[in-house]
Structure formats: structure tokens, C-alpha cells
Amino acid sequence: MIKDYLLEEKLPLFWCAGCGNGIVLQAILRNIDKRGFTRENTVITTGIGCWGKADDYVTTNSFHGTHGRALPFSTGIKLANPSLNVFTLMGDGDGITIGGNHLIHAARRNVDLVAIMVNNLNYGMTGGQYSGTTPKHAITKTSPYGHVENGFDVCKVVQAAGAPFVARGTVYDVVQLDKLISKAIDHKGFSFVEVISPCPTHFGRSNKLGDAPKMMQWIKDNTISQEKAAGMTRDELQGKFVTGIFEEREQEDYSTAYQKVIDSLRGGENE
Amino acid sequence: MGEFRFMQGNEAMTEGAIAAGARFYAGYPITPSSEVAETSSIRLPQVGGLYVQMEDEIGSMAALIGASAAGKKAYTATSGPGLSLMAENLGVAVMGEIPCVLIDVQRSGPSTGLATKPAQGDVLQARWGTHGDHSIIVLSPSSVQDCFDLMVTAFNYSEKYRTPVIFLSDEIIGHLREQVILKSPEELDIFERPEPTGDPKDYRPYDHSNGLAPLSHFGSPYIFKVNGSMHDEWGRPCARPDNADRIIRHLSEKIEAHAEEIAITRRYNMDDAEIVLICYGGAARSALSAMKKAREEGIKAGVLQIVTLWPVPDQEIREAIAQAKTVIVPELNLGQYIGEVEKRNEKNIPVIGVNRIDGQPIVPAQILAEVEEAAK
């Protein structure tokens, strides 16, 4: 039962009406439940921000650390006990902005864990300032005249850094999101899923994208599959959310590789 | 029976950590601590442990804490610039009450400073480097033997008091080579983390109403929620003022209330000493040498070496002041620990600092000159 993983006494969720975080949390817990992962053998690590509050609502082990550092906390947890199912939840501030260095190295290091980055294109928790994914020209609390920088294509960054599983979905297409998270869990190694999610309270309001349903529609209207995107120019792809699985290949994970080192030194003898 | 070896301080720290049961190292190489990383990368997999080099010291500290929460005794080594970066997540270890050992082989600062030269400039940063009210344990070795023995103590304190411990070495001790006895397991007292007992449903990792709660680890039947934000006894977020008040007081008191148990000091020729040298770390070696020369000159000098810098060995410093006519505090900084002596100087005797900040060690003659002056 998915309810077994939800700390019901902490409900209702503190997230704003129309926020996509609840959809993502449910998709994760559905998948954990489907796999039959126990609360004892599961660790959910979070960063700081709206999405960083997700651990408040779960009954599994959890680790709520510092802004942008969820991945290195997870790295230590998983390497110390490779039998754990480790889920790392990050926002765009955590994942690619303050924690960008950790993200690219985690992708390269290939520790076997699932990293889920909810991208709402701005810093929700602190009131709607720009992040590393805020698109050019977007209005935020700290780009009141339009953003002069470009936002990251996070999946491309993670892919270039060497992650063996990289995918993007949205909270609009929950069926696809479920599948992407499911595949990320099945994939051995560093599995990265970016989820495009609305922040009607800040990003939506600042950019006059309408209320929560309208923002969901906005995500739907601007989402295209990678198959369709393949035939489009860079200009045509501006402001679009390309979804799908961008990378899916076998690659030896860190713990397996390191265990070989230990075995070579100790002849398979373990403490 | 232990094993006689000729070793560098940094190497002995690795052996001490492994002897204490540490099986996880996460770090980022930095002079003058890199030998700890190098020897750890060799030794840990030999004993079934794991070495991982992280992208920076922020990530290193995070991985260390994660590994400890997953049940492994864990350590890292760094120097000033790295300590500054580790300060962020050091606070998570404090707040989450996760044991770990952070070695700081001090070098001259601020900033990149003199990267290869000794200093003791991080004494107050070790105490207050991470933001917010908290207490912490800081140990200061002065020999290669200390690097082994005290490292075991550092892990024991860390596990016993559920706190990060800073092992505050310096370049002098880190790169010093001398004889060391690597004690065998039966010669060592190792404090093992007490496992929680009882119904897992009732386990509260932050309920300290009956002494410190036993620490669970991820993967055990006892669900463990670690939270760097203010939390209740379950580890769930809690912003109630009374709860915040209780937690912050607890984080200090769990260490300060045991300061006398944690205090390690060494007394040399103190019985009749009138001029007392209060010192620590690399500078303690010069102080000892100066004291011996002063004794040869008929001066009643003694040494109180502070091994536990934080929490301050209050009683021992007060006793030294009570018997002294003059106290001299040699430090490789502009006077970071002398303040702790002055705070306890109710007798108002002269408390004189001998300070060196040019990247060179304090030589015995420098200290001896002050002792002779005081004896006049």
C-alpha cells in the first residue's frame, strides 16, 4: 500500500495549490510500493527547497541535509551499504545550481542510485528568484526586467557527464513519469530523471502564465517528445520541454568496481 | 603486543583510524594532509573498507556523514581551506548527531596562505567554524604516537557523544617522522556504537530523555530519520520554540556536561612549577624542550599540555593558574587559546603569549627567553 510509505500525520502537504511536487512524490512512492522495497531498506535523501521538504512525508529512512548536497550524502550512504535503495530528491536549485558540481561528478562516478530533480524553473521556497534553469527573458523576483542568462538543459549536462540513465518527464504526463521512474529504479548505476513541474505561485505569477490549471496546460503545450524534437531546429526548440529517455546503457557501477578492488586484495574474504 | 614502526604523523593517523574501526574515508587532497588520503586509499580496501575522493570538501563531509548514518565509522582529512568548506556540513553532523572524525592538518592561513608551512590558526575555527550554537570535541596531537592513540580516542568520543570530532593536527606533527607503536586490537579500548533495542516502532533517534539515544543506521530495523533542520525526537521537522530551545541546549550540554571526562591534559614538572607553559600540538614540543632547559638553569618551570582543546579542560587550567606566578602560552597564531587561559585568570597573574605566524615553528629558545624574563 502506498499509504504505508506516507506519514499521514504530517498531511496536508505544505506545498502550494497547483504545485507539482505531490504528483512526483506519489509517483516515487507508487514505484517503491510496486517494487516492495521496505521502509527499512529505503533511504530518501533530500536537499533544501520546496521539494526538499518531501522527506517530511515519508515513513522510510530519510536524510534531510544541506542545499545542493543531497547527492554526496547519498553517495556516502550507498557506498557504505550497497544493499540500500537510495532515492535522491533535488530541486533545480539543489540539483544544477548550487549542487551542479556534485551532479556532474555523481553522473561520472556512477553510484547506483536514483536521482530525481524536480525543475520548476525558479527558487520557490525563497520567493521566486532565478535559478540555473530559469530560461532567458523570464521574469523572476531577481530578474525583474527579464533574465539575461540562459538556463541549463540539465539532461544534456548529466548525459555529457557520463550518467548511464538520463530521462525527462513532466507532471502533466503522469503515466510517462511513472514509467521513467520505474526504468530509473531498474537501471543499475546513476539514474537521473528530471521532472518539469509548475510553480504557479512564483514563476507562473511573475510570467503571467495564469493559475494552476493554466500552468499545467502551459507545460502540456510546450512539451514535445524527443522523437519529434529530433527534426526541429535549435530556435524551434527554445522554451520547449523535450521528454523521453536520452541515455540508457549498461555501465559498471562504483560499488561493483570497488568491490573488485577489495576482492583482489583480500581474495574474496570479507569482514 | 604492538608493532614498532617508523612513520609520519599523517600515516599514523590512517593506522589509528583503521585500528579504531573506521572503514570509510571521503576526502579531497590538500597539503599538508594528503598523506592521510594516500595511505587511506591503500589501506582501507585491504581491510574491506572504502576510500572515495569527492569533488570538493563540501561533498567529502557530506559523504562522510552519509556513510556514518549508514553504519560505517568514517573520517576525512583536510587543511585550512578545506576546513572552511567542510564547515557547512560539519553543522549537519552536529545537528543530526552523526559521529565522524575530521582531521585538520593545520597550515598557515588565511586563504591559501603558506600551503606547506605550519600554523595553529584554526583553533577557534575548529570550535566555532560552523554556524549556530553548538559544542564540539577537538583533540590536538603532539607526536606520531598521539596520531595513532588519540585517533582511537577521537573515534571513541565521536561514537560515545554522537558528535563530530575534529582531530586538530598541524604540519609539524603531520609531517614529523618518529617511532610509533601501532597497538594491537587487544591493547585498545574501542567504543562500539550501542544498537537500539526494543520495538522498532518506538525508536526515537533524538529522544535523549534517558541519556543519549542509541544511534540506528540505515538498513537496520530501526527507521532513522536524519534532519539538519530543527527536529523533534523522531527526527521529524519541528519549529516549536520549546523544542528548538531544548535541542540547542542539548547539543551544547551533551558535551559541556562531560567536559571533565573528555578532558585530556599532560603535566610535566608541574608539582613545584611557578612558571607554567600552557601549550598544545606542535608548539608543545618546543615548550617541553624550553622547560627542560629552564630547569637546568634552576628555574621552576612546568608544562601543562592541553590535548583536549575543546571542551576546555577548565579545572586543569584553573589549577595551573592557582599555583603559577606567570603563565606563558606559546602558539603558532596571534593568540587563539590564550583567551581561554585569561578567562580563568581570576588571580590576575601575568599571562604572556609567545606567538609566531611567519610559517616557521616556534623554537625552544624563543620560549626560553620568555621564561627567563619571567623568572627575573
Mean pLDDT of chain B: 97
Beta-strand portion of chain B reads: 15-25%
- Total number of helices of chain B: 13
Computed structural class of chain B: alpha/beta
The top level CATH class name of the largest domain in chain B: Alpha Beta
Please trace the helix and strand order of chain B, writing H or E for each element.
Answer: EHEHEHEHEEHEHEHEEHHEEHEEHEHEH
Tally of individual domains of chain B: 2
- CATH homology superfamily of chain A: Thiamin diphosphate (ThDP)-binding fold, Pyr/PP domains
Number of helices of chain A: 10
- At the fold tier of CATH, the topology name of chain A is Rossmann fold
CATH architecture level-2 label of chain A: 3-Layer(aba) Sandwich
Question: Rg of chain B from C-alpha positions?
Answer: 21 Å
Q: Please provide the count of β strands of chain B.
A: 16
Percentage of β-strand residues of chain A: 15-25%
Structural class of chain A: alpha/beta
Order of helices and strands of chain A: HEEHEHHEHEHEHHEHEH
Instruction: Give the N-to-C terminal Cα separation of chain A.
Output: 37 Å
Q: Averaging pLDDT over every residue of chain A, what do you get?
A: 97
Give your account of this protein's structure.
The complex is a heterodimer of chains A (271) and B (376). Chain A is α/β, with parallel strands linked by helices. Chain A is 36% helix and 17% strand. Chain A has a single domain, classed as 3-Layer(aba) Sandwich (Rossmann fold), CATH 3.40.50. Chain A has helices at residues 21-35, 70-80, 92-98, 100-109, 154-160, 174-186, 200-206, 212-221, 226-229, 254-266; strands spanning 42-46, 61-64, 85-91, 113-119, 165-170, 190-196, 223-225, 241-248. Chain A has an eight-stranded mixed beta sheet with strand order 2-1-3-4-6-5-8-7, sandwiched between helices. Chain A is globular and about 65 Å long. The mean pLDDT of chain B is 97. Helix content of chain B is 39%, strand content 22%. Chain B has 376 residues and is of the alpha/beta class. In chain B, helix 1 (9-19) runs parallel beside helix 6 (144-160). In chain B, strands 2, 3, 4, 5, 6, 7, 8 and 14 form an eight-stranded mixed beta sheet that branches. A five-stranded mixed beta sheet of chain B has the order 11-13-12-15-16, with helices on both faces. In chain B, strand 7 (137-139), helix 6 and strand 8 form a beta-alpha-beta unit. At the A-B interface, strand 2, helix 2, helix 4 and helix 10 of A face helix 3, helix 4 and strand 10 of B.
